[in-house]
Input
Amino acid sequence: MKHKLVDLIAACPKTELHLHLEGSLEPAMVFALAERNGVILPYASVAELQAAYQFNNLQEFLDVYYAGMSVLLHEADFYDLTWAYLQRVHQDGVVHVEVFFDPQAHLERGIPLATQIHGIRRALEQGQAELGISFRLILSFLRHLSEESAFATLAQAEDFFPLIDGFGLDSSEKGHPPEKFARVFARCKELGFKITLHAGEEGPADYVWQALNLLHTDRIDHGNRSLEDPQLIQTLAERQMTLTVCPLSNLKLRVVQQMEQHPLIQMLDSGLKVTINSDDPAYFGGYMMDNYRALIEALPLTSEQLHQLARNAFTGSWLSPEEQQPHLEQIDALFAAFQA
Ligand code: HPA
Ligand SMILES: [Zn+2]
Output
């Protein structure tokens, strides 16, 4: 039975709404780019690097994540990274992606924004043309840095506004609440951009409240700790706020202790609009279908719940209703055929 549900979701068109491009940097590519760019790595082999992928919390992961991206120097590196990701998720039936990149982490290393954006966009446009994968690109601010740094990055991004679809907030959550960035995100919204904020991954439910009511976010990334606050659950459900949940990430970063304990079904039963995403697939053990497979294995998910998850990914995306429609029709037809 479970394998039939896996086959069903595999056949569906899927969208990924929570993906850090730098988190799709596979160990083999770290080594290939290190060699190409003459970067000396503190690891002797792919296996040794992979052995470092044991995390007790978000910060332990972030330390390895920022170290890993030190091999990204040239436009071609950002292109190769993004193109490898698109080719990989094409195999998983992903037809639309809304991906983050972390420009401050590269600017700090002296990599110009133009280098980053042109490499990423070249791959995204090729993915649209050759793989039929539509996309949105989200510039994410690092919350462990200051709001001034975010404002400076926004100023640098001005020349590239036509190439950017929205702004995000990621990195070390605890001690860096959304309110720290209230002014810069107000400016992003004034400029007409969508925003999506990591909140309630490790940080408290109050950070999710701030993201909603103070920053007027268009989406919540993770949001797991919302479940600690019944009033917040009700508000998120009433507003049909999209939550981008990342099951394998949650397991690897110990947001949940076992996949069997993942609160996904509780979230669905509470009326929350949740979606399935891979976050940093090179570090957390898998891409889109690996996340679905792990959930289907561990939880008593019904086909109705999977249908809801598949639809939420599109209705929670920044595609127009007209762009969503054919994908939703295809999903509905696949589930109707399954249930018949
Ligand atoms: O899961 C994450 N949380 C916060 N920051 C991040 N940066 C990359 N991945 C993550
Ligand atoms: Zn994330």
